[in-house]
Amino acid sequence: MNDSASNGTDSGTDGTSPGPRRSDATRAAILEAARERFAADGYERATIRAIAKDARIDPSMVMRYYGNKEGLFAAAVSYDLKLPDLTSAARDEVGRALVTHFLAMWEENEELTAMLRVGATNQGGAERMQEIFREQLLPVARQACPDPEQAPARAGLVASQLLGLALTRYVLRFPPTVALAREEIVAWLGPTVQRYLTAPSP
Amino acid sequence: MNDSASNGTDSGTDGTSPGPRRSDATRAAILEAARERFAADGYERATIRAIAKDARIDPSMVMRYYGNKEGLFAAAVSYDLKLPDLTSAARDEVGRALVTHFLAMWEENEELTAMLRVGATNQGGAERMQEIFREQLLPVARQACPDPEQAPARAGLVASQLLGLALTRYVLRFPPTVALAREEIVAWLGPTVQRYLTAPSP
DNA sequence: GTCTATAATTCGATAGAC
DNA sequence: GTCTATCGAATTATAGAC
Question: Distance from CA of residue A117 to its chain's centroid?
Answer without folding.
Answer: 11
